[in-house]
Design brief:
single chain; mainly alpha; 12 helices; 0% strand; TSUP; Probable membrane transporter protein; TM_pro_TauE-like; transmembrane; membrane
Length: 253
């Protein structure tokens, strides 16, 4: 019945499939962005919570593949585990808040945080608090990132800001983001299951989406491995700017 319903609703099925394919390629090529792209578009047809539910499982798979594609799995796992656990805790809080309230204002807040950061970065200023108070800023910022991720399904920009400020290499940045995404999505699934938010339709669409995105994700990862680190950092700054505009436009619309 689920397949018949969505195949008959060709507008939704075609748009969702195209958006997921593009999102998988973008994520594969720059290491983040899968949840960000389809969430606002699918939300046009449904609502923000349903959009997150429909993309949760494919997002989890994409994050796992991206993390593994960088190699040095055990070292990456050990190095970024504290970040992943703190963002997971924050995601649990944010997801519970999402179930109980509207998250549009948080999206606007996130957009302005990104724009402020890009301006500060453009004039060659750095966020000194990360270096002045490394431990306390790490804990607070990681929890805040997780909460925003749970509320908006957008965690990558905040993680990128942190990674850039700490001078992470391309591989370190991608692994830090994706293991945090991975743990965040796992706890989101748990919270949604506890609250009875998942339906058979959500699960069916999510597992079907995994097959839809597989090839484009593979192509994106191949492109990423050929990209120079300096070019990569320029690309993600440009993507951050585009993300902020998308978030602002979505809130206004």
């Amino acid at each position: 019945m689920f397949l018949i319903r969505f195949i008959l609703d060709l507008d939704f099925f075609i748009v969702a499939s195209i958006v997921l394919i593009i999102a998988a390629f973008v994520h594969g090529s720059i290491g983040f962005g899968f949840a960000l792209i389809p969430t606002p578009i699918i939300a046009i047809f449904t609502d923000i919570q349903t959009a997150i539910l429909l993309t949760l499982i494919p997002t989890l798979v994409v994050n796992l593949v991206s993390f593994l594609s960088e190699g040095n799995i055990l070292d990456g796992f050990k190095k970024h585990m504290p970040l992943a656990l703190l963002t997971m805790l924050g995601s649990a809080i944010g997801t519970q808040l999402l179930i109980m309230s509207n998250s549009e204002l948080f999206k606007l807040l996130l957009a302005f945080i990104i724009l402020i950061y890009l301006f500060v970065n453009k004039v060659n200023m750095s966020i000194s608090i990360f270096k002045t108070y490394p431990k306390s800023s790490f804990v607070i910022y990681s929890l805040f990132t997780g909460v925003v991720g749970g509320l908006t399904n957008v965690m990558g920009p905040l993680l990128m800001i942190y990674g850039i400020e700490l001078k992470y290499s391309k591989a370190e940045l991608i692994q830090a983001m994706n293991i945090s995404f991975l743990f965040g999505k796992i706890i989101q699934i748990v919270v949604f299951l506890i609250n009875g938010s998942f339906t058979s339709e959500h699960l069916s669409f999510s597992f079907m989406a995994i097959f839809i995105i597989s090839f484009s994700l593979y192509l994106g990862i191949k492109l990423k491995k050929r990209m120079d680190t300096k070019v990569y950092l320029k690309v993600i700054r440009a993507v951050l700017f585009i993300i902020s505009l998308i978030l602002i436009a979505q809130v206004i619309i």
